[in-house]
Design goal:
The structure is a single chain. The protein is an alpha/beta fold. It is built from six helices and 16 strands. A twelve-stranded mixed β-sheet has the order 1-2-3-4-5-6-8-10-11-12-13-15. A two-stranded parallel sheet has the order 7-9. A two-stranded parallel sheet has the order 14-16. The longest helix has 20 residues. It is elongated and about 80 Å long. Pfam families: LRR_8. Keywords: Leucine-rich repeat, Repeat, Signal.
């Protein structure tokens, strides 16, 4: 009898231990509690996500969030919806770590500035139509944001409001097809942990060294399909970790020694095709660097002038093409 009691006690202890060890973010609430939204776990090691599709009433979204106050989610996803805002309680109560919004209309991001005293992972907007301009001050109480991705969503400038309110430990920023045209002169200078920056399909005409920290930890820099016609000579100075550089589809005609000669030999990816590159004497420096590994899709760029070099790959240029140039 005593051994039986001991066994039951052990089993009970194991059961309680397992229950206590269960992460709250691995448990979905009852389906009826969060209709018309739903909860799912996308992979074995993933935590649960709250997903809402085709929500057209703010009260419905607010009610779903309120009813699930006893639960936590790793991710909240809003898709094909039209609402005023995302309830800030998703952060303070449900402790979401990632926010994804797709093809939706909103007035503002949140009903109030969320207080996020934990590590926030991803903010992703794709085709989001906002009746107000983006209010970066709503992120002023975030302890951290690891990654921000904004696609097909109007964002005409990155200004002081972005710089002053986004946590400085941001690691990745992607802005794609958002009509971005203006960058503050020191926009990224205080983001000392930034390792990936992608600004693609916009109207940016100028970038400056002052926009980045010094030293800069960027490993990947993409500024493609913009309106860049020239780059300052010191742009890539004090960027010791830069390995991937893409400047595709701009208006760059000169690849000057001051700008490129010191950084290009260190790169594992250098894409500069779809630019009107003039292969005159100013690019003679390229023949002095090792281009034996410039193969495949990771290195690209062609001459558009002079006529005798039109279509010539940058990797194939040699001293014979510059015999007329003075040292």
């Amino acid at each position: 009898m005593e051994s039986k009691t001991t066994l039951i006690s052990v089993l009970l202890l194991v059961f309680v231990s397992v229950c206590l060890a269960t992460d709250p973010k691995d448990i979905c609430p009852p389906r009826d509690l969060i209709k018309p939204c739903y909860c799912e776990k996308s992979c074995v090691k993933c935590h649960v996500s709250l997903k809402c599709d085709k929500v057209l009433d703010q009260d419905v979204l607010t009610d779903v969030v309120r009813k699930s106050n006893d639960y936590q989610y790793a991710t909240f996803e809003l898709r094909d919806s039209s609402v005023q805002y995302v309830p800030a309680s998703l952060f303070s109560i449900q402790k979401i770590e990632s926010l994804y919004i797709f093809n939706s209309s909103m007035v503002s991001w949140f009903d109030e500035a969320p207080k996020v005293n934990y590590d926030f992972d991803v903010l992703h907007l794709n085709d989001v139509r906002m009746s107000r301009s983006i209010q970066w001050d709503l992120f002023s109480s975030f302890k951290s944001i690891k990654r921000i991705s904004i696609m097909h969503t109007t964002l005409r400038r990155l200004d002081e409001s972005f710089k002053n309110n986004i946590p400085k430990n941001l690691k990745e920023l992607r802005v794609y097809n958002c009509s971005l045209s203006r960058l503050h002169d020191s926009i990224f200078s205080s983001f000392t942990q930034l390792v990936t920056l992608e600004l693609d399909f916009g109207k940016i005409k100028e970038v400056k060294r002052s926009m980045f920290p010094s030293p800069c930890k960027l490993k990947r820099l993409t500024i493609s399909f913009q309106k860049l016609s020239e780059l300052p000579g010191d742009l890539f100075s004090n960027m010791p970790d830069l390995k991937e550089l893409q400047l595709v589809g701009n208006l760059l005609s000169e690849l000057t020694k001051d700008t490129f000669a010191s950084i290009v030999p260190k790169l594992t990816t250098f894409k500069i095709h779809d630019n009107p590159i003039k292969c005159g004497c100013s690019i003679h420096w390229i023949t002095s660097i090792d281009r034996s590994k410039w193969r495949g899709p990771w290195f690209s760029g062609k001459c558009t002038a002079p006529k005798e070099l039109e279509g010539k790959e940058l990797k194939d240029l040699n001293n014979s093409h510059f015999q007329h140039c003075r040292e």
